[in-house]
Design brief:
Bound molecules: threonylcarbamoyladenylate, magnesium ion
Number of strands: 16
Number of helices: 10
Helix content: 25-40%
Shape: globular
Largest sheet: 11 strands, mixed
Structural class: alpha/beta
Order of helices and strands: EHEEHEHEHEHEHEEEHEEHEEHEHE
């Protein structure tokens, strides 16, 4: 299949490109769209065949449900049974990086929800995503645009690497602003929230809107043999670069000492803070922003993990993040990318 790649900088000027993407989606095609979190592999969420195509292109097990993307929060009425808490969340965080799980209506096929009676709803703030959804007139089912198991894509070059020839269109919207996937919450029967996946909308921010927020026990990714995760995606291998990633737990001085020694004997790729770059040997260093600048770490993480693959290191090292604020989302992605390998130094 020939994939059309289009750069869209201004949705008001490039109306024809938006209309073309919208028509492809309505006709059951696949279009990769930029969002404020990561790129999404989009198809018509009400069309079972589109959802099947998404699973096939991604190499994703079909019991792992898709998020549907809507243009305005009230569009959720067409696809889900909403409640007061949904609208409180919408008022506070939509459009933006929040996904809410609600009971689904019959308009959403089981092929999209992986057989579940619930549906994940998100209203993205990225102008291109918004314009495409609105012009298509359908909700866009879109998982992160990466081959299953690989890190999500936050730059178009990696989207092209994974999907050129497998989708109808790729829209290049530049680098994704946030860099980590949306926060996912489940609205429970007693109008409480369960945090299923941390993201840029933090636990503390959710607590400002709802006084009953719990963190899913599966969030750190450890599940017993017979346990069923609330969010099916939690059970799969994720974000993994080709080489082993190890997270280092210790104060910065010890981490630098350890890394210096390792650099003498191994080809290590190192995700370091900017200010550490001059302390280490100038080989395979991948700075992720200044210490404590979590927004930059989040924005750079997935691209850096993908860069590691092109360097073919023996091993990859990174600092283990603190779990405060946005740190919880970074911790969640990194601990899974590392398959829980943590070394105390
Ligand atoms: O930021 C994002 O959310 C990006 C952009 C493209 O919007 N999308 C994204 O989709 O990260 P995906 O498919 O890679 O991750 C969605 C996660 C999966 O772990 C899936 O299991 C979970 O959401 N999920 C989807 N529907 C669900 C449902 N009904 N109940 C529980 N979990 C659900
Ligand atoms: Mg994903």
């Amino acid at each position: 299949m020939e994939t059309k790649i289009v750069r869209i900088d201004d949705v008001n000027v490039q109306k024809n490109d938006i209309a073309e993407a919208a028509a492809l989606l309505r006709d059951g095609g696949l279009v990769v769209i930029p969002t404020e979190t990561v790129y999404g592999l989009g198809g018509d969420g009400t069309n079972p065949l589109s959802s099947k195509k998404i699973y096939a292109a991604k190499g994703r097990p079909s019991d792992n449900p898709l998020i549907i993307h809507i243009a305005t929060p009230s569009d959720a009425e067409n696809f889900a049974y909403t409640n007061e808490l949904y609208y409180k969340l919408a008022k506070a965080f939509m459009p933006g990086p929040l996904t809410v799980i609600l009971p689904k209506k019959d308009t959403v096929p089981y092929e999209t929800t992986g057989g579940l009676d619930t549906v994940a709803i998100r209203c993205p703030s990225h102008p291109v995503a918004h314009a495409v959804i609105e012009a298509s007139g359908v909700p866009i089912a879109a998982p992160s645009a990466n081959i299953s198991g690989k890190p999500s894509t936050t730059a178009v070059e990696y989207v092209i690497e994974d999907f050129d020839g497998k989708v109808d269109m790729i829209i290049d919207g530049g680098a994704c602003e946030i860099g980590l996937e949306s926060t996912i919450v489940l609205v429970s029967k007693d109008e409480g929230l369960v945090l299923l996946r941390p993201g840029a909308i933090t636990y503390d921010a959710l607590c400002c809107v709802c006084d009953n927020v719990t963190i899913s026990p599966t969030l750190e990714g450890t599940l017993g043999e017979n346990e069923r995760p609330l969010s099916p995606g939690m059970k799969y291998k994720h974000y993994a670069p080709a080489s082993q990633l190890i997270l280092l737990d210790g104060d910065d001085k010890n981490v630098i000492e350890f890394l210096k020694n390792e650099q003498k004997v191994k080809k290590c790729a190192i995700l370091c803070y900017d200010e550490e770059a001059e302390l280490l040997e100038n080989r395979l260093l991948l700075p992720i922003g200044r210490r404590g600048d979590l927004k930059t770490h989040a924005k750079m993480l997935f691209a850096r993990l993908r860069e590691c693959d092109s360097l073919s290191p023996d091993i990859i090292y990174a600092h283990i993040p603190d779990k405060e604020g946005l740190g919880l989302a970074l911790y969640n992605r990194m601990i899974r990318a590392a398959a829980h390998s943590v070394l105390k130094v």
